[in-house]
Write a structure and sequence with these properties.
0% helix, elongated, mainly beta
């Protein structure tokens, strides 16, 4: 059975689980503004097979 992938345009707040096949276009860490050595968030720009680009913000929990 082949794995089904979702496109970025199918991401909604109705579900919390998706199978994505994307290319990471850019990835960077935003430091905490009070403690520069501690990461605050991970930012990424993703692109899927339909050339849809998506920017995502992931907060780092310490």
């Amino acid at each position: 059975m082949a794995l089904q992938f979702h496109t970025i345009s199918e991401i909604t707040s109705k579900s919390m689980h998706w199978n994505l096949k994307v290319c990471v276009i850019r990835l960077w860490i935003v430091p905490d503004k009070f403690k520069l050595e501690i990461p605050y968030s991970l930012e990424m720009i993703l692109q899927d097979e339909k050339a849809i680009v998506f920017m995502h913000h992931l907060k780092v929990c310490n």
